[in-house]
Design goal:
Radius of gyration: 17 Å
Number of helices: 9
Bound molecules: acetoacetyl-coenzyme A, 1,4-dihydronicotinamide adenine dinucleotide
Number of strands: 7
CATH class: Alpha Beta
Shape: globular
Strand content: 15-25%
Number of domains: 1
Helix content: 40-55%
Strand order of the largest sheet: 3-2-1-4-5-6-7
Distance between the termini: 34 Å
CATH architecture: 3-Layer(aba) Sandwich
Largest sheet: 7 strands, parallel
CATH superfamily: NAD(P)-binding Rossmann-like Domain
Order of helices and strands: EHEHEHEHEHHEHHHE
CATH topology: Rossmann fold
Structural class: alpha/beta
């Protein structure tokens, strides 16, 4: 029970990595706010948590809209009283080669993956400062660290997340708040299912552990950074990618 009685908001908690993180955090004793644009998926995760005896609420949120994020945080505090952990996990792709990337697809990825992380983190910080303790986890990507063909917009956001994470680690470390990023490699979720098979085949040859990652691989990294075990870890980027680039 590494998160016993802690309250965690997990954005994008309805599907993929966020779903696995919601279930993992609940098994470790957390009260979980499963916050997702996809309300049905969030409700399904909450139902599963409750069937297993855990405690959770589903909140429909669009992280790209500040008012929606403010409402999410209010619901979390009303339900559980504290916000001990924020996992900024919601994210989208809109892949295109540079010469084909539209301004609309540029902007929508920036709005969710970059501005959304800013809105969510800014919204929970007053509560964490009041508590004198908190854990903020952001989700970068191998694409943000090393770049990726067809991901100008996405890579920009995931590199930006690293910069924000390190800035916040410096601003907030003295207030008892740890801010760290996880940079996953290619993980088997709906996001990767959209990648053409020929690209996946090429990719697999570059992963030393010879497989794509699983959502549990990332949920376990989130868990470490959310738990007291990581109290002296601040401003780091934890690469969970099978050693894809070294
Ligand atoms: N690595 C290496 N080569 C790649 C590549 C990649 N990631 N993506 C595309 N290419 C290559 C293609 O194989 C192709 O090469 P050839 O001309 O030799 O066949 C060339 O680039 C052009 O690709 P397409 O013919 O597919 O061009 P398109 O305009 O139809 O589509 C695309 C371009 C939308 C970028 C498409 O190739 C694509 O979806 N690629 C995958 C991009 C990708 O890796 N996205 C990751 C999504 S998962 C994620 O984002 C999670 C995370 O954080 C890692
Ligand atoms: P996914 O597509 O399976 O799940 C993403 C979830 O985010 C969905 O439930 C979706 O409804 C939600 N979401 C999307 N836009 C939202 C918004 N505006 N507001 C609230 N919720 C929203 O994706 P996956 O793979 O689970 O990705 C989770 C995170 O991990 C993302 O930030 C992604 O960029 C990152 N990541 C994923 C990798 C992968 O290979 N799957 C690799 C590296 C990073």
């Amino acid at each position: 029970m590494r998160l016993k009685d802690k309250s965690a908001i997990i954005t994008g908690g309805g599907n993929g990595i966020g779903r696995e993180a919601s279930l993992t955090f609940s098994r470790e004793g957390a009260n979980v706010v499963v916050a997702d644009f996809d309300e049905d998926a969030a409700e399904a995760v909450v139902a599963e948590i409750k069937e297993n005896g855990g405690s959770a609420i589903a909140v429909k949120v669009n992280v790209a809209e500040q008012a929606s994020v403010t409402a999410m945080v209010e619901k979390a505090v009303t339900a559980f009283g504290t916000i001990d952990i924020l996992v900024n996990n919601a994210g989208i792709t809109a892949d295109a080669m540079l010469h084909k990337l539209s301004p609309e697809d540029w902007q929508k990825v920036i709005d969710v993956n970059l501005t959304g992380v800013f809105y969510c983190t800014q919204a929970v910080i007053p509560k964490m400062v009041e508590q004198g303790k908190g854990k903020v986890i952001t989700t970068s990507s191998v694409s943000g660290v090393y770049g990726n063909v067809g991901q100008t917009n996405y890579a920009a956001t995931k590199a930006g997340v690293v910069g924000m994470t390190k800035s916040w680690a410096k601003e907030l470390g003295g207030k008892g708040i740890n801010v760290n990023a996880v940079a996953p490699g290619f993980i088997e979720t709906g996001m990767v299912a959209k990648v053409p098979d020929k690209v996946i085949e090429k990719l697999k040859m570059t992963i030393p552990v010879n497989r794509l990652g699983k959502p549990t691989d990332i949920a376990n990294a989130y868990l470490f950074l959310a738990s007291d075990e990581s109290d002296y870890v601040n401003g780091t980027v934890l690469h969970v990618d099978g050693g894809i680039m070294m």
